[in-house]
Amino acid sequence: MNTIIVSALLGVVMMFSGIFTANKTAIRNVAIVALLVLLGVNIAATYGCCNLNIDVKNMLEFSKFGMFFNSIAIFSTLMYLVLSGSDIVKVGDNAAEYFAIIFFVLCGVSVLSAYNSLLMLFLGVEIMTIPLYILTGSDKKNLKSNEASLKYFLMGSFSTGIMLMGIALMYGVNGNFGIAFDVPAAGSPLQNYGILLPLGLLFIFVSMAFKVSAAPFHFWTPDVYDGAPSVFTSFMATIVKAAGFIAFIKLFETHYFQLQASWKMILPLVIIATLFIGNITAVFQQSVKRMLAYSSIAQAGFMLFALYSNNSFSKEGILLYSAAYSLATIGVFAILIKMKDYTFEGYNGLAKTQPVLAAANTIFLLSLAGIPLTAGFFAKYYMLTSVLQSHNGFIMVIIAVLFAAVSVYYYFRVIQSMYFKQGDAETSAISSGFKYGLIFLAALIILLGIMPNVLLQYLYF
Amino acid sequence: MPISNYIIFCLALFTIGIVGVLVRRNAIIVFMCIELMLNAVNLLLVAFSKMHNGVAYLTDKSTIVGADAQVFVFFIMVVAAAEVSVGLAIIVMMYRNTKSIDINFLNRLKN
After folding, report:
1. What is A132-153 written as a DSSP string?
2. Residues in chain A where the model's pLDDT stays below 50
3. Residue A374: half-sphere exposure toward Cβ, Cα within 13 Å
4. CA distance B48 to chain A (A)
5. Which of A140, A147, A167 sits opposite B106 (nearest CB)?
6. Best residue in B1, B72, B74 to probe A by mutation, most A CBs within 10 Å?
7. What is the DSSP code (8-state) at residue A238?
8. pLDDT tens digits for A204-246?
9. Using CA atoms, how far apart are residues A209 and A297, in angstroms rounded to an integer?
């Protein structure tokens, strides 16, 4: 509860900070301090300290899992602001508002990690996505940004409509908005309408698949991620996507076994389609930014495994995956933003001109590809092991490993450009603080890759 | 009136909204079709609310079963209003730059 309230209040504080100072660096520093406060509040709330005692009528449920995910999301945002904060203020004139919007998104994230009622799911998704429409279109004079935001907005509200229909149908059968449901009670006028329940669930599934960009509903993702200002793409592709997955898993973990027969057919198909489209299309991209958009679809395919296997191992795995994926992608994007040219050729010879950036970028890309000794390896390992534990999913695992091998190709193309091609990669001015930030992030990824327990132990203590 | 009439009517309204989103090329009309989808949901929620209330009323005259769906409808209206404010701003921003609100404009990012 504290996290939700404080993040919303800090958003308002950030909005007002724009009135008192026009100094953009000062605003950025206020945002970083505010995030540290939010992180502190969230960790204190995780351990039951100073919790506001508000009767939420069982609509929100604060579990260790959700609170821990909040900490990961807030920490990732902190790293994001430290690395890319100076680029956020360059997007437009309204620096304070951009930071305020980021806090409102975090408010939505913390609602989504705690919801226990379909009403809160709906509100959380909306609190999270409506600010993102604004961020996507924040580069007002740029046609690509306009187009991306209109497309994101239309697709987003369309999928919200579908979700609401699903919620309404489920309400019709259940008579309440709880996320656990049962077959129509005897005497209910809907006794003969048992079909409404799977139909409603299917609607919600489609809409959540839209939000996390799983395969048949992914088509908006490359355009929106490509058109949005790069700094905000970084935020959308990491923290927001991971929060979507947490909501997705929470919604379906209780229903999974009730609707197993129909479920078992849809989900593996969606996973394989997501992996296929994400990885194969990423191979053919010329722009690194667009490649990362497709790679985020591919990574979503891996995260969907947590939904498919649905056991305690996969819940640990999704936390590790969201931490590994968010940190690595934030790092890759932080470097991408500094590049003058977003194509693969733009990276040619980066290792000569900026050795620190190239080395850090290599570690981030290795982590995204899932090479051992980086966090991405254990993230993928947890996902695949959980599938083997829950189902005899050997075929799924083999397919996933094959697609992970495909993903190595396009990630290594960037490394090849940086180290083995001649050229002079142009970057904007790089401060030494930025370099230290990258080194810290890379060290964190290697630490998580050697000892994932460093992160996961906090789930139990 | 049996609940099935409401379900069929709302699903029809919802489908009209979906078809409109997929077929129409004018951003504002697409937007109106999305609102139509939301309103179909509102109507269905109110109908279900009344239905559950009617069942519970037979045993308990002072029941409030079903009130939660009507509250949900208010939430949907509020969120839809928030979406309208952002969405119209985006459409106006696009209109300023291109002097058009045609969705076909959205194909430039493809390559």
Report:
1. HHHHHT-STT-HHHHHHHHHHH
2. none
3. 20
4. 5
5. A147
6. B72
7. I
8. 989 999 999 988 888 899 999 999 999 999 999 999 999 999 9
9. 11
Range of the domain at A425: 256-461
Q: How buried is residue A116: exposed, middle or buried, by Cβ count under 10 Å (0-12/13-18/19+)?
A: buried
Beta carbons of A346 and A291 less than 8 angstroms apart = no
Dihedral Cα A355, A361, A363, A364, nearest 10 deg: 170
Is A456 a domain residue? yes
What span, in angstroms and rounded, lies between the C-alpha atoms of A253 and A261?
Answer: 15
* DSSP 3-state of A178: strand
Sign of CA dihedral A428, A432, A434, A438: positive
Nearest residue of A to residue B36, measured between CA atoms: A161
Dist. CA A433–CA A84, nearest whole Å: 11
pLDDT, tens digit, for every residue of A402-421?
A: 999 999 999 999 999 899 98
**What pLDDT band is residue B110 in, cutting at 50, 70 and 90?**
low
Fold of B3-110: Helix Hairpins (1.10.287)
Residue in chain B nearest A168 by alpha carbon: B45
Identify the DSSP state of A236: I
Question: Is residue A292, in this structure, part of any structural domain at all?
Answer: yes
Which ipTM was obtained for this model?
0.94
HEC letters along B46-72: HHHHHHHHHHHHCCCCCCCCCHHHHHH
The answer to whether position A224 is within a domain reads: no
Confidence (pTM): 0.93
Count of structural domains within chain A = 1
DSSP state of B86: H
DSSP assignment string, A60-124: B---HHHHHHHHHHHHHHHHHHHHHHHHHTTT-S-HHHHHHHHHHHHHHHHHHTTB-BHHHHHHH
- In chain A, residues with a C-beta closer than 8 Å to the C-beta of B14 are 161, 165
- Specify if A448 maps to a domain: yes
